[in-house]
Design a protein that fits this description.
- The protein is an alpha/beta fold.
- Among the domains are: 1-55 and 133-160, no CATH class; 71-130 and 165-379, Rossmann fold (3-Layer(aba) Sandwich), CATH 3.40.50.1820.
- It is 39% helix and 16% strand.
- The protein has 19 helices and 20 strands.
- The chain has helices at 8-27, 33-53, 136-147, 205-209, 222-226, 230-235, 244-259, 277-285, 317-330, 336-340, 344-347, 368-373, 392-398, 409-428, 430-435, 437-463, 490-493, 508-527, 563-578; strands at 58-59, 76-78, 81-84, 86-87, 93-100, 119-121, 128-129, 159-160, 162-163, 168-174, 181-187, 213-217, 265-275, 297-301, 314-315, 357-358, 381-387, 469-475, 547-551, 555-559.
- An eleven-stranded mixed beta sheet has the order 4-5-10-12-11-13-14-17-18-19-20, sandwiched between helices. The protein has a three-stranded mixed beta sheet with strand order 2-3-6, with no helix packed on it.
- Helix 4 links the parallel strand 11 and strand 12.
- It starts with 7 loop residues before the first helix and ends with a helix.
């Protein structure tokens, strides 16, 4: 069933088929087994047929949030050609969407995008990079979980069109003649396998109202962005493989540096930001020699690779090669040339994960942690942090059919941390486990996979002579929708509560926090310091002691309650690395 995500007629047909199944089962109650199986067979065939028709269209996604957008009189000229932009509804922001910043053949480094003749339409986002999702049924199910209620939408839900490359960026700039404006480049999340630069959570209009040019980018994902193979390394003039998505991000950064003056930006005042896998990517950009000198500041939300053993979005080249060879066998290809001929729509359905960057010797010449250890990172200022319930949805899905309880939690901890450290963690959390084992394991996983890597990133950045200042936050604001789970902070930080389409799930306290966070982020992009007139003071991490900046109903310094678990996790990491 599609939870009424498609047109009403298909939902009604699905219900009729379901009712028909129950009626048939009653009528066939005393019939032979083969007749009962026939009933199920007919049900499955009809359901598959209906769902095959009940699919959202893949369309061009408009970058405008109001009807009949007003076009800008003079097109924007960039290195590829002219782009026709449009104004925001209040005429205070200029928007140019779907600009190609590079092009790339499958599993090759990106190169400069082709120039175009005439004026390119910049009122639509470019196609998203090839990916398996988003699936409307999954989106509706997620909303069901997040909001705790069913809000059926009987209108067809269109999905942004896709293409294998999808190397486009979108610009929101203040409608002003001022030049040398600060620039923010945002890298979207999605586990390096999903996502788009066109999502509403990080629309750049509100940031442009604050005097910042915001640019969202798209990059190759999944098997197209992170597939690795020794033969690809041999054929590459740069001897690289496995980091094509990261190389795309660097190409976007290069494009922004080259074109900054064309749209009123200051190439010497660029901040990179990202959330989830986008934040992992930001931490990689902070350690890539190819990105050195291309930006000044970094914002990382809810993921980091600056840890001795990253839990996600990073793997060894050996492991990357192993997966690459398995994919070759999966598609029965004996050469890279053969695999390149496999249609993208088929290749994207590979059963093997390709959601990790690797140390390829070109984009990343050393592990990110090692780069910071040697003091060779790229950013001068860092703002980073996490949400208090980061892992809740991930843990919930993993243990949906077998919830965690007091009897099985220790065994589950041992699977991740081994017997020695599982025992230490169990003792630390014993009281919480007795009270609520589900909440306890959710917190432990959140800390291990999100808070702890940010603690490491913070401390490694402060130990480096390259980084002068670090600010760290913890997002704690609950609401009627995403609350404090993974990615819940974005609509506040980028000022997009009203673009969520979930207005009833947020109240005035949310809008108050949105105003504060948007100002913090904009101020940091401009100067490297989030503080400003009328805002609660946000101290540098070095003066916070064991505290972090709480961003929630309360905005101010609070103790970091995870320090004892950090200590155990540092011991665990050190032992694993030296073993």
């Amino acid at each position: 069933m599609d939870f009424a995500n498609g047109p009403l007629i298909w939902f009604i047909l699905e219900l009729l088929v379901l009712v028909g199944l129950f009626v048939a089962r009653v009528l066939m109650a005393n019939k032979k087994k083969r007749y009962k199986l026939l009933t199920w067979g007919v049900f499955v065939l009809l359901t598959v047929a209906i769902l095959s028709f009940d699919q959202p269209k893949h369309i061009r996604k408009s970058a405008a949030y109001y009807a009949n957008p007003v076009l800008i009189e003079k097109p924007l000229t960039v290195s590829g050609g002219k782009v026709q932009g449009f104004y925001s509804e209040d005429k205070k922001v200029e928007i140019y969407a779907g600009i190609p910043y590079a092009k790339a053949e499958r599993w090759k480094e990106p190169v400069e995008a082709d120039k175009w003749s005439g004026v390119r339409d910049g009122t639509y986002f470019g196609p998203m990079a090839m990916q398996g999702g988003p699936y409307p049924q999954v989106i509706v199910a997620e909303n069901l979980y997040l909001e705790g209620k069913w809000k059926p939408n009987y209108l067809e839900t269109p999905i942004q069109e896709k293409e294998e490359g999808g190397l486009y960026l979108n610009i929101w700039k203040p409608n002003t003649t001022e030049t040398n404006l600060p620039i923010l480049m945002f890298v979207h999340g999605g586990s390096l396998k999903n996502g788009s630069g066109a999502f509403e959570d990080y629309n750049g209009e509100a940031m442009a109202h604050k005097g910042v040019i915001m640019i969202t980018i798209q990059y190759r994902l999944g098997v197209f962005g992170y597939f690795a193979h020794p033969d690809l390394k041999k054929e590459s003039k740069n001897h690289t493989t496995g980091n094509y998505g990261l190389l795309d991000q660097i190409a976007a950064l290069n494009w922004i540096n080259k074109n900054a003056a064309n749209f009123g930006g200051d190439k010497n005042n660029i901040t990179i930001a990202g959330e989830s896998a986008g934040s992992s990517s930001v931490s990689a950009l902070c350690t890539s020699p190819l990105a050195a000198g291309k930006f000044k500041r970094a914002i990382g939300e809810s993921s980091s690779l600056v840890i001795q053993r990253p839990h996600h979005t990073y793997r060894s080249l050996k492991d990357a090669y192993s997966v690459g060879k398995s994919i070759m066998k999966e598609f029965r290809c004996s050469s890279i040339d053969e695999l390149r001929k496999v249609p993208a729509a088929k290749l994207v359905r590979t059963k093997f994960k390709n959601e990790e960057m690797t140390c390829d010797g070109y984009a990343l010449t050393k592990d990110p942690y090692q780069v910071y250890l040697e003091g060779n990172n790229n950013e001068e200022f860092l703002l980073n942090g996490y949400n208090v319930k980061e892992a809740d949805p991930f843990v919930m899905i993993q243990y949906l059919l077998s919830p965690t309880n007091k009897a099985n939690i220790k065994g589950r901890l041992e699977l991740v941390f081994g017997e020695k450290y599982a025992e230490k963690i169990y003792k630390l959390y014993e009281k919480k486990i007795e009270k609520n084992a589900v909440e306890a394991i959710n917190e432990i996983v959140s800390v291990a996979y999100f808070m702890f890597p940010h603690d490491s990133w913070t401390k490694m950045a402060l130990s480096s002579p390259k980084t002068s200042t670090v600010y760290r936050y913890q997002f704690t604001k609950e609401n009627g929708y995403m609350g404090t789970i993974h990615s819940g902070e974005m609509v506040y930080a980028y000022g997009n509560i009203d673009k969520q389409g979930k207005l009833s799930d947020y109240d005035e306290s949310d809008r108050k926090l949105e105003k504060i966070m948007l100002n913090y982020w904009a101020n940091f992009v401009k100067t490297g310091n989030p503080n400003g007139a009328g805002l609660p003071t946000w101290d540098e991490y070095t003066t916070m002691g064991d505290g972090v900046m709480e961003l929630g109903t309360n905005v101010g310094k609070i103790p970091d309650k995870y320090t004892k678990l950090y200590k155990i996790l540092y011991e665990y990491d050190n032992e694993k690395v030296t073993a």
